[in-house]
Design a protein that fits this description.
Helix content is 44%, strand content 18%. It is an alpha/beta fold. Helix 5 (116-128) packs parallel to helix 6 (141-153). The two termini are 19 Å apart.
Length: 367
């Protein structure tokens, strides 16, 4: 399975071009806390709680340290995610596979390509193959509730990545509205430093409203902008851009119509990478101080852009830190669930701003 997954990722990477640096393995941290990089970041990295209204516990290094990864030994784990066709997943999934297999477990990772019907079939296959634990990153959480319930009836532990589902043993929850708000606040604070009511910032929104959680991020971005830069900006265009190629094409089109647009907010890594490329071409790499790109996720290529002054990348709002940090935290969740040590069904992941100052530390744990 490992060879098949890595081969699939290589095909995806070649197809997307700009996402080339996001797969592989390697770590500067073997800590079971899954957060050594974020713990080593400079004071510029801002940790943010993401609890919303759902009850649960906030993850922390101490929380993950409760996990005994030897619990994974001999276990069979099935993972179904929305898609492997973006840089974030292309980096985290091989890292997760390495962490799980190095602790003696078997893991199979598949993508449903944003199809609930496909994902239900994948869950059913994992049940048939007698997995000990199934992790679902749902295309539509409501659509897979029944399939997850059936898995639990068969004695299989179920974990959801992203949503507070009902028929699970544990949910690793990311409040996507809060994530969007933090992106919007970061952009708004930058705008407040460089723009005025008489010289408003023109913002391009790179979004993907077809997917519910990404629409939530977009709505959160607007809330964050209003909280920090009300009256100082206008959103001149909103274009879909899930991967880097789409985002670059969208941004090049936007710049043709709005050549004075210098701010981009986006819902994922593709938005930063693609917009950065479009801006670099349009400016010849001479990035003005009032130009900035602000998005979610943390990939190797995003970190490279943050450290390169010929790109306008300013802030990436991430989670545990590097690919390996996230993978180790996720594996710790598996161990806690399999060991019946998860005291709350919902575990909230933290958020952190990553800037050029923080990027070198985070890069140490990337693939």
């Amino acid at each position: 399975m490992k060879k098949k997954l890595l081969a699939a990722l290589c095909v995806v990477t070649m197809a997307l071009g700009l996402l080339a640096g996001c797969a592989g393995s390697g770590s500067s941290s073997g800590s079971s806390s899954g957060s050594s990089s974020s713990g080593s970041s400079s004071e510029a990295a801002e940790s943010v709680a993401s609890t919303g209204e759902t009850e649960g516990v906030q993850a922390s290094p101490e929380f993950y340290a409760q996990a005994d990864l030897s619990t994974l030994s001999g276990k069979k784990i099935g993972v179904t995610i929305q898609s492997l066709q973006n840089a974030y997943w292309a980096g985290v999934m091989p890292a997760l596979q390495n962490v799980v297999e190095s602790n003696g477990a078997e893991i199979t990772i598949v993508a449903c390509d944003d199809s609930s019907a496909t994902q239900i079939g994948q869950i059913e296959n994992f049940v048939s193959s007698k997995c000990d634990l199934i992790m679902v990153h749902p295309s539509d959480a409501a659509a897979v509730e029944d399939a997850c319930a059936q898995a639990r009836e068969a004695g299989i532990k179920v974990m959801c990545w992203d949503d507070p589902m009902t028929n699970t043993d544990g949910n690793w929850v990311l409040n996507n509205t809060d994530l969007g708000i933090e992106i919007g606040k970061a952009a708004g604070e930058f705008i407040a430093e460089h723009y005025t009511a008489d010289n408003k910032a023109q913002i391009a929104m790179i979004n993907y409203p077809q997917t519910t959680i990404l629409l939530e991020r977009e709505e959160g971005i607007i809330q964050g902008l209003e909280a920090t830069a009300s009256g100082l900006y206008e959103i001149v265009s909103s274009q879909a851009g899930l991967d880097a190629n789409q985002a670059q094409t969208a941004m090049e089109t936007i710049l043709q119509r709005y050549p004075d647009c210098r701010i981009v907010t986006g819902i994922g890594s593709g938005a930063m990478i693609g917009s950065d490329e479009a801006f670099q071409i349009s400016t010849g790499g001479n990035i003005p101080e009032d130009m900035g790109v602000f998005t979610a996720d943390v990939t190797k290529q995003q970190l490279e852009h943050l450290m390169d002054e010929s790109y306008p990348a300013r802030i990436a709002v991430g989670f545990e830190g590097s690919d390996v940090d996230t993978a180790t935290a996720c594996a710790s969740m598996y161990a806690l669930i399999l060991g019946d040590k998860l005291e709350s069904q919902n575990v909230f992941r933290g958020l952190m701003r990553i800037s050029a100052e923080d990027a070198p530390t985070i890069m140490e744990g990337m693939q």
